[in-house]
Design brief:
Elements lengths: L2 H15 L8 H8 L1 H20 L3 H21 L4 H11 L4 H15 L1
Length: about 110
């Protein structure tokens, strides 16, 4: 099974539950709360993953990373960004030095102003 398979299934589930009942669906509830609340959850889960990593707690790092990715997928869906869009961007960056990519982004931002 490809790693992206589970991500795609989760993203599809999030899209399907978007219109669900917020009283019975965690996903519907979060999406109804809006972007700020979803983004806050992503941040909370990221911090918890960082803490687990700093404590060298692999089991907790796995669990918190899964939580973070799940909420990140909700943030993508909320923003109208497909998982495919993110995968294409990662593919575009493949083989490019991280330092070069960062410099290119800074140049593009200056050009956009």
């Amino acid at each position: 099974m490809a790693t992206t398979d589970i991500l795609e299934r989760l993203y599809t589930l999030i899209e399907e539950r978007r219109k669900g009942n917020p009283e019975t669906s965690y996903i519907a509830k979060r999406l109804q709360q809006g972007t700020a609340k979803i983004a806050q959850k992503v941040g909370e889960e990221a911090v918890e993953a960082v803490i687990a990593a700093m404590q060298k707690d692999k089991k907790e790092l796995v669990a918190e990373s899964a939580d973070m990715i799940f909420h990140w997928l909700m943030l993508l869906a909320d923003g109208g960004v497909s998982l495919s869009d993110v995968m294409k961007e990662l593919e575009r960056r493949e083989g490019i030095s991280g330092l070069d990519e960062k410099a290119n982004r800074k140049m593009r931002r200056k050009e956009d102003k």
